[in-house]
Amino acid sequence: MVSPLAGAEAATTVPGAASVLTAPGQTLTVAGAAVTVADRDAYGVTEYVPPPPPPVVVAETEKPEASSSATSGAAKKSSAAPVAGTPDPGSAKAVAAELVAARGWGSDQYDCLVSLWQKESGWNVYASNRSSGAYGIPQALPGSKMASVGADWQTNPATQITWGLNYIGGRYSTPCGAWAHSVANNWY
User: What pLDDT digit, counting tens, does each position of 42-71 carry?
Assistant: First the structure.
């Protein structure tokens, strides 16, 4: 025990007990048993598996009447994108809708963009492809290319969307052009 009146020296006795100091060659024996093993409950660590993205609903279209040209009967891939609907205010999709409209593109182009980026990244601003290095909502390859639009390219959906629309406009002219390429080639 330490006495507050003793300065830097510790007391050598505990009130009501014998001296705790022993002389050389002496031992102090305490009666009782000590537990040397302690068990803890078992636990496990499981890796987080994100839920799958929601399925893309394809709108039914009217089937055309039989045409005069014969078809082979083989199924064709359709590049028509399903209708995206109205995005939640403040969401990345809402930002994209505004930027698509500002470029003079119609709602059909927005629908194609929603389908394209749902397929590419699930509209996740942090989406990263470990094998290719593609990053963000538009899956820029490499992701650092988006720094040409803003220093916040790693976290800002507006920066990523602006870069992605610039890329699409320069390479495919429109989001539907990019979507058609993606449907045909599984990349854009």
Answer: 767 777 777 777 766 655 554 444 444 444
